[in-house]
Amino acid sequence: MDVRQLQVTFDCADPGALAGFWAEVLGYSYDAPPPGFATWGQALEAWGVPPHLRNARSSVVDPTGAGVRLFFQQVPEGKAAKNRLHLDVRAAPGLQGEARMAALQDEADRLVALGACLVRRQEPQPPAEAGHLVMQDLEGNEFCLD
Question: Cα–chain-centroid distance for residue 87?
């Protein structure tokens, strides 16, 4: 069987804002505009997309090509319940104990400045639990700093 690429899709109210947030979180960049266009705005204009629909979708990619593509699509309904799936952002790989929690807190502080919300701090529980921070993005989607 061939290996498949993976894309993570977010249903959201403001695709442009949420895409920008996640690009900052992960060091990603917006998808490049289609060939022949310098910007997405030019492409959407040329294709006749009405201005009120130009924030209906957005996407960001890992500039190295190693990570998954994130796609954001506008939906009319708001978030209604806890996520059944969430992203773990590996913000302190290889660190343990106080150094790990300090690195996670530093990253949480950076993300709060971008509009995220710190929900809960899970302290390390040796031997198996290394500790993590539960966060929410701009639209309330849960994710962890791990």
Answer: 8
